[in-house]
Amino acid sequence: MDQTPINLLEIKDLKKTFSISGGLFSRRLTLTALENINFTIRQGETLGIVGESGCGKSTLGRCILQLLAPDEGQVLWLGQDLTRLPAEEMRQRRADLQIIFQDPLASLNPRMTVGEIIADPLRTLRPELNKDERRARVLKTMEAVGLLPEMINRYPHEFSGGQAQRIGIARALITEPKLIVCDEPVSALDVSIQAQILNLLAELKDEFGLTLIFISHNLSVVRHVSDRILVLYLGRIVELATGDEIYEDPKHPYTRALLTAVPIPDPRLARQRNIDALKGEIPSPINPPSGCTFRTRCRFAKPFCAETRPPLERIEDGRLVACHRWREIEVPVEAVLGV
Amino acid sequence: MAGITGKDAVLSEYARKLETLDAPKGRSLTQDAIRRLARNKAAVLSIFVVGFIILFAFVGPYFLPWTYDKIDWSGIRKPPNFEAGHFAGTDQNGRDMLARIMQGTQMSLIVAGVATLVSVFIGVCYGAIAGYFGGKVDAVMMRFVDIMYALPYILFVIILVVIFGRNPVLLFVGIGCLEWLTMARIVRGQTMSIKEREFVEAAKAGGAKPWTIIFRHIVPNLTGPVVIYATLTVPEIILTESFLSYLGLGVQEPQTSLGTLISFGAPVAETLPWMLIGPAVVLVSLLLCLTYIGDGLRDALDPKDR
Amino acid sequence: MKQVLKVEDMSVTFELHQSEVHAVRDMSFSLSEGETLAVVGESGSGKSQAFLAIMGLLAKNGRAGGRAMMGDINLIGMAPSQLDTHRGKDIAMIFQDPMTSLNPTLKVKTQLSEVLVKHRGFDQQKAVMTSIEMLERVGIPEPVKRANAYPHELSGGMRQRVMIAMALLCQPKILIADEPTTALDVTVQAQMLDLFKTLTQDFGTSLVLITHDLGVVAGVADRMMVMYGGRAVEKGSVDDLFYDPRHPYTLGLLHSTPHIAKRAERLDPIQGLPPSLEHLPKGCSFNPRCAFAFDRCLVERPPLADTGNGREKACHYEGPMAYGKVA
Predict the structure, then answer these.
(1) Helix, strand, or coil here: A74?
(2) End-to-end alpha-carbon separation of chain C, Å?
(3) For residue B17, what pLDDT is reported?
């Protein structure tokens, strides 16, 4: 990149809660899905978002796209706050922000043909196009994602997962977006197809100058595609750094724990590894631990971790980490990966 | 290489390709369902029988020497008599029973069809809207349905009779307006599960407006439960009509319906059996066939449940 | 090492409306005591169906052939009543989604103790005690509390542990795990894999791990069998197959798996799609996706042949397979 990248998207103090009705006579419960989310996305980068299930990573993606309305905070798209945009203007803006889903078949309307599915966003976002122009664009996009033109009149159930995901990608591409949120786009696919889709996303990114937000629970996949990685735990950012930094020098104990848990497709390394698996499971977001939410599973937790919540600190080169003790717990990378 | 942003060059290139493109048609879910239905022998037979009954009711009268309201003074309470053209006998007033059965079937089919269509239309729109918007809209709309459920049906029917008087079709438009309640509940439940599916979210991300989402993405996916429930509504309304006619609230003389014919035939079944047997056979076969079609459709549309 | 299971020429066919689909063909392998065998393949490779057949759990339209010898009993074609005496007791299976195999209306302890009462003739009290002990052994904290819970009150990882505890209650010789960690988070997955290693060491259980994730295989398995289009295409020790794959499909799978410690610019995936079992290509089923295919591959199906050193492969190609050639 020859010029300083501009900040495409800026998330400020985002908070999202869900209320859960606790039955007829019990109190309504509030689940804080996301809190205190602050980060920026630069044009042309791929930001990976990782975390365990229930950490709020998918909710974050949907809040960015305004598919869910955040409770507080701003989502600034080139300086314009999307959360305050009137519905009609937001609708027009959607051409710039698209999404790819986890379950490729569930994300395609089973009653529509491939052509209709891919053309669907154009009907609302580009109403001036006539039928032939729409069809031409559909075919062009199908070609870009590696679908044959003769598939245009087929229905989703006639396709395998990998091809269905290509259809989903084509639908996201047809509005010529600037940003695509990829919500676990490969986790439902077979290994050989996963790699094809990852490569396709990388090619499309280069070809169309896309910015990607790549949400996944699979650290190897995120590491493979991302420039920077954001680690979420119980709805809060615990660490944000470049992929190399996260992998070579993770600061937060949770990031370390995630890294040691990643299976490595290399038997000798895997055998040598001393997996110090994280104990227990993610606590309930309805009733999160006091202070640092990770302290209940943290090897390095001290009594004061239960008292105050660690702030998200900016350390060197724009890295962010939220831990009281990150300075004290230097661990060499060999120990982290167990390699 | 020009991206999808290099519009004009791309468009003309593809315009050429389009002319020669011969994309095979895919198998839609509906076609799949029809194929599965065609393999179900009971359902196929039932469709033929229902088709025959419809022909019988609407075309049959043109081939008869007697009309349903014409009185044959020489033949009152007579068993079938082929010479006089009374193939199914005559009733107490000397009217030709076969003509009356045809007219009665016609009437039953019309009211059932009209009432079902009305109830499907209202039920689908109402349920889809309540289910899609959820929250307060849903709460208010569904409480209204609950209240309607609680009110006595027959009271409404009497009010409708007062309003529409002798017009049976309008009466059954009214009955359709009452029958949609269950349909609305079914559709609402289905809508609530469909709206959580990712393709609805994808449509939102593609900028679709709520009405577009409801009528383009949700309603077509309701086909299964709606068609199944509708095929079960048809016999229900035929029975309702029979019941109302029995009470004297339905079709007015000289017009008749299957229910009315049976209610007249039942008391005299021992002396004039042909007055009961004819309409009863038609009604029973109609109801049986519709049930088989409903079952067949359920299997065809929801292959997983088998 | 003692062999606990010997499968010979096993096949699984499904009867469809007009056709017959061969989900598994000519499958042979053996499993030794305390050994972990990984069965690797993509969806539709027949890897799950093969073991469902051994467990006698095929769908109604499925039929199994060949032999699966456990000692001198053949599990294939055994009457259901007879199979019941072995199933759960000598050979147990756990699945990807534990919720489908647990009864949602019964407490965990009821479901566990039921197994003991039925198979080992324990009385109720002893059965419950043993169940709670087993829950503790598979790493469930507060086992008494969890034993009194209903399945839906437990997290995914916890449910999978309950399933494993249930499978181990009768100390089976063989445990078949079908994608046991696919639905779990990476941290919980690491705990589970650790548990599997302990199990094979402490209980001497032989483990069959069915998975598509080579990362999981590398950490746990001793030997592996790669399946494609219903057939085993390569067999051997994990080290041999990872460091010196001889079948292009194995090589392709390895290059498709992202490695956290090695960041490549692009992955080198296998082209094309997995074949449908109804329309397998002629000759070698992998030939349309294979970078090394030549004319012989299009007409003649390579048999699974011994290549020495306890390895077998089904491929005509004998030359070197350079990195990057797979694409």
Answers:
(1) strand
(2) 40
(3) 57
Which of A66, A44, A1, A37 has the alpha carbon at shortest distance from A212? A44
A264 band by pLDDT with thresholds 50, 70 and 90: confident
Domain B48-62+111-305 part of CATH 1.10.3720.10: yes
Most confident of A176-185, C150-159, C269-278: A176-185
The residue ranges of every structural domain in chain A are 7-96+177-337
C253 contacts A191? CB cut-off 8 A: yes
| Chain-chain contact of B22 with A103 (C-beta, under 8 angstroms) | no
Sign of the CA dihedral running C49, C54, C57, C61: positive
- Would the CB atoms of B205 and A173 count as touching at under 8 Å? no
Say what the alpha-carbon torsion angle A304, A305, A310, A314 is, to the nearest 10 degrees: 90
Say if C261 is an interface residue toward chain A (CB within 8 Å): yes
Neighboring chain A residues of C42 at a CB cutoff of 8 Å: 190-193
Q: Is the pLDDT of residue A1 over 50?
A: no
CA distance A118 to A143: 12
The answer to whether the CB atoms of B4 and A97 lie below 8 A apart is: no
Can you read off the two tokens belonging to residue B298?
């359920």
Q: Domain limits of chain C?
A: 3-90+172-265, 101-169
ipTM, 2 dp: 0.84
Is the pLDDT score of A12 beyond 70?
A: yes
What is the reported pLDDT for B2?
38
Mutation target vs C (from A105, A159, A187, A190; most C CBs, 10 A cutoff): A190
pLDDT at C237: 93
Residue C312 clears pLDDT 70, i.e. is over it: yes
Whether C239 and chain A come into contact, CB under 8 Å, resolves to: yes
Of A190, A192, A219, A275, which to mutate for an interface test with C (greatest number of C Cβ within 10 Å)?
Answer: A192
Domains in chain B: boundaries: 48-62+111-305
What's the pLDDT tens digit per position in B295-306?
Answer: 888 778 765 533
Interface partners of chain A (CB pairs < 8 Å, 3 or more) are: B, C
**A28-55 pLDDT, tens digit each:** 788 888 988 999 999 999 999 998 888 8
Is B205 close to A97, i.e. CB distance below 8 A?
yes
Closest among C53, C47, C48, C49 to C78, alpha carbons compared: C53
The correct answer on CATH 3.40.50.300 for the domain covering C3-90+172-265 is: yes
Amino acid at C313: K
Residue among C262, C198, C258, C35 at smallest CA distance from A277: C198
The CATH number, out of the four listed (3.30.379.10, 3.20.20.70, 3.40.50.300, 3.90.1640.10), of the domain defined by the range A7-96+177-337: 3.40.50.300
Report the pLDDT value the prediction gives residue C250, as an integer from 0 to 100. 92
For chain C, positions 201-220, list CB contacts with chain A under 8 A. Answer: 212-219
- Suggest the residue from A266, A333, A337 to mutate for an interface test with chain C (most C CBs closer than 10 A): A266
Residues of A with CB below 8 A from B8's CB? none
pLDDT surpassing 70 at residue A167: yes
Per-residue pLDDT band at C278 (split at 50, 70, 90): confident
Which carries the bigger pLDDT value, residue C225 or residue C118?
Answer: C225
| Alpha helix positions (H), chain C | 47-54, 80-86, 98-101, 108-120, 124-137, 143-147, 156-168, 186-203, 214-220, 238-243, 248-256, 295-299
Interface contact A224-C264, CB threshold 8 A:
yes
H-helix or E-strand containing B124? helix B97-133
Tens digit of pLDDT for each residue in C232-260?
999 999 999 999 899 999 998 988 888 87
CB atoms C274 and A160 under 8 Å: yes
Q: C touches which chains (3+ CB pairs under 8 A)?
A: A
Residues of chain B with pLDDT under 70: 1-24, 165-166, 169, 302-306
